[in-house]
Write a structure and sequence with these properties.
The mean pLDDT is 95. 26% of the residues are buried. This protein has 4 helices and 2 strands; from the N terminus they run H-H-H-E-E-H. The protein has one domain. The longest helix has 25 residues. The chain is 62% helix and 8% strand.
Length: 104
């Protein structure tokens, strides 16, 4: 397996862990599917990953650390750090997917 693909799988592992730590199962399942495809050398997983980005309600709109209560929304104490990490991982995953696709 190519080094960049291995790096992308590691980034996906970190994304999955972060998403699940905040209770997000939708995007976690999405990233698990991409991960499984790449491990099986199914590079259509790159297209599937990129389809998560863009448009309303997409992966790049996701904000972590939001809590819903009777009065509305509140933020978890660590929401800034969580979202900074999410943004870095999200950007790195997209960048690696583009680079890998170009090299195929």
């Amino acid at each position: 397996m190519e080094q960049k693909t291995e790096e992308l799988i590691e980034v996906l592992d970190q994304l999955i862990e972060l998403l699940e730590s905040d209770g997000d199962m939708h995007w976690s399942r999405w990233m698990r599917k991409v991960r499984a495809m790449l491990i099986d050398s199914d590079y259509s997983g790159l297209t599937y990953l990129r389809s998560a980005y863009g448009g309303m309600g997409s992966f790049n709109d996701l904000m972590l650390g939001q809590n819903v209560n009777g009065a509305g929304y509140s933020w978890a104490p660590s929401h800034v750090e969580m979202n900074d990490k999410l943004e870095a991982l999200r950007n790195r995953a997209a960048q690696l997917a583009i680079e890998i696709k170009r090299s195929l």
